[in-house]
Amino acid sequence: MGILEKISEIEKEISRTQKNKATEYHLGLLKAKLAKYRSQLLEPSKKSEKGEGFDVLKSGDARVALIGFPSVGKSTLLSTLTKTESEAASYEFTTLTCIPGVIDYNGANIQLLDLPGIIEGAAQGKGRGRQVIAVARTADLVLMMLDATKKDVHRHLLEKELESVGIRLNKQKPNIYFKASVQILGGGISFNSTCPLTKIDEKLVQMILHEYKIFNAEVLFREDCNADELIDVICANRVYLPCLYVYNKIDQISIEEVDRIARQPNSVVVSCNMKLNLDYLLHILWEYLNLIRVYTKKPGQPPDFNDGLILRRGVTVEHVCHAIHRTLAQQFKYALVWGTSTKYSPQRVGASHTMHDEDVIQILKK
């Protein structure tokens, strides 16, 4: 029996099993087996298959992967937002490889990757799905393109495909400390929690770890997590990405339906054909990527607003020094900052001061 057959058997078994107190250990064990087989499926085979890959050099300040079913308007969006022309036609699978484009917004270069359409079963390798998903793992943000006329069917299918290959959308990493240790003084599994656990207990944790052939480990739960989240921590190959759901073709549905979709969390409604709401999409994209602009100033001269530094939200003055030049942090004496991060302008700050968007900084060396 191949891995695919084993996976389908376990999935059928999980769907058949009733969820109650008596079956939770059985279900936890099945989920652990399922995760193990899926990770085996993702491992590259010994015989490297020759063919056109999707590897695109990471460039710019951030990388955004455009994922969606065929013919939902991914190529049209790429051609509209960037200077790159991606072939768009009324038939499915117009795009057959990865086409990169660059969005120039607020002085930042955001790399947008137009990936071929995903079909159901992509995680098992259907329709070059595995290559598409491998590129998505390297992105900073997933832009999920959906057809507004198809309700939420596509959205649930795509989430399921990405979930099965270890991509977690709009989720935080589980706050579980896990360390597989060598046997010391009797060994065994050390289990602790700093909060009451309602979804898992020590017996289930031991059964899941034994499924992975782990018999000596430390496990500490800092929040109330379930079996799936524990498996994610044990596998340690999960990617947690922010995701923005973009509903295209809003010019073909009623205004009430547009209003309903737009109020959903992490959702934006656009029309690539009529160029509706694209400016708001770029604004939200900027917010989700957590990018900020920091402008530099030379002593006795006005700030340079044309060429700002593009950095991530939460950066300190020390990070700004490294962004300007790698030796600047060693010679750093203090900095003067103008902007919303200070109580008064200019304020003399140290290397640990946190910068805000559109702050102006003047660095003084020793």
TrEMBL record:
CDD domains for this protein: DRG (cd01896), TGS_DRG2 (cd17231)
Positions of the OBG-type G domain: 62-290
Key words of the record: GTP-binding, Nucleotide-binding
Domain TGS: residue ranges: 290-365
Single annotated GO MF: GTP binding
UniProt keyword Nucleotide-binding present: yes
SUPFAM superfamilies: P-loop containing nucleoside triphosphate hydrolases
Family matches, as NCBIfam families: small_GTP
UniProt name for this protein: Developmentally-regulated GTP-binding protein 2
